[in-house]
């Protein structure tokens, strides 16, 4: 596509940070001393590193006024008064802290993309991670059955192997228009480092309409990874919907992205899923659904029921469809 996002910075760390948000659109990085007026005029969106702002303002010839300019700041510098002077002088419509304000940044960039890619993280608060594994498998199966082209990153080793969960689950065959699934799995008992996950996210997002990430919310690196995520799904057993661990994960997710959805799984015949959803709403959870698949006679009945219930797969996929960015065409 002809449109591009211009990032003005001489910091490698800033460029790497912004790359994860610029999925589906070309990112052009220029040091402030080497900025050409043509790039400034032609870019669909201009992102200016706050450290580069004084250099731009000191140019012998002022840059012409233009729309769609954002000033990017480090969270530690957001109270610095010069930031607002720089923003006004350069015509910035937004002052965004990175990565804290990544949701705003990602939304602005996604508006430029002809078919925005969607990055979905699944965070299971339970230490076992089994419900999260089953939910990720269910999403993958439902997406391919709907003819979607998906990427999947499994960065959370659990007792329930995600690959085997996908293989053993009963699910509808892919649609005639050929859904596909490309998977990247962990190969040992330790989660991969943050840089490896981010690199995989960028790679898969360039090739697939939707990328699923199965992450451990209790790993320190996970919070840093969530800045590039569009939607976070927190699957939880009904009995744990307002447990401290769940509340903590939901709160952290809400700080990372405005789109957080809690999905309640019934794990026993007498579980009141409706009451669990109501409790979550009362706890301030922003978006919720519940599912109570019939129990099955296995060690983990709720997990087996998830994997075997194609209707539940589709209901979970509807959550992804609800938050999918609308297709838009740049002017």
Automatic annotation (TrEMBL):
Pfam families: Rv3660c_N (PF26563). InterPro entries: Rv3660c_N. Residues 22-115 form the Rv3660c-like CheY-like N-terminal domain. This is Rv3660c-like CheY-like N-terminal domain-containing protein. It comes from Saccharopolyspora cebuensis.
């Amino acid at each position: 596509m002809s449109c591009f996002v211009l990032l003005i910075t001489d910091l490698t760390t800033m460029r790497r940070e912004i790359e994860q948000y610029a999925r589906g659109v070309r990112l052009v990085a220029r040091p402030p001393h080497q900025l050409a007026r043509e790039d400034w005029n032609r870019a669909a969106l201009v992102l200016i590193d706050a450290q580069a702002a004084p250099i731009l303002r000191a140019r012998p010839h002022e840059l012409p006024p233009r729309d769609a300019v954002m000033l990017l700041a480090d969270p530690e510098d957001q109270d610095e008064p010069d930031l607002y002077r720089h923003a006004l002088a350069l015509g910035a419509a937004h002052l965004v802290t990175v990565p804290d304000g990544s949701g705003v940044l990602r939304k602005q960039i996604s508006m430029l993309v002809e078919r925005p890619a969607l990055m979905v993280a699944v965070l299971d608060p339970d230490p076992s991670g089994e419900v999260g594994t089953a939910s990720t498998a269910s999403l993958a199966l439902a997406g391919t059955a709907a003819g979607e082209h998906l990427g999947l990153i499994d960065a959370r080793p659990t007792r329930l192997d995600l690959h085997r969960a996908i293989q053993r689950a009963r699910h509808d065959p892919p649609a005639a228009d050929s859904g596909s699934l490309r998977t990247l799995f962990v190969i040992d008992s330790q989660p991969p480092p943050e840089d490896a996950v981010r690199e995989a996210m960028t790679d898969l997002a360039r090739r697939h309409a939707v990328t699923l990430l199965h992450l451990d919310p209790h790993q320190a690196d996970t919070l840093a990874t969530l800045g590039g995520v569009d939607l976070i799904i927190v699957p939880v057993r009904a009995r744990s919907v307002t447990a401290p661990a769940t509340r903590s994960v939901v709160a952290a997710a809400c700080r990372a992205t405005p789109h957080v959805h809690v999905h309640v799984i019934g794990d026993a015949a007498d579980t009141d899923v409706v009451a669990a959803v109501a409790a979550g709403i009362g706890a301030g959870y922003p978006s919720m659904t519940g599912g109570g698949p019939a129990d099955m006679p296995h060690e983990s009945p709720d997990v087996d029921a998830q994997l075997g219930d194609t209707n539940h797969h589709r209901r979970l996929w509807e959550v992804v469809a609800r938050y999918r960015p609308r297709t838009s065409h740049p002017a």
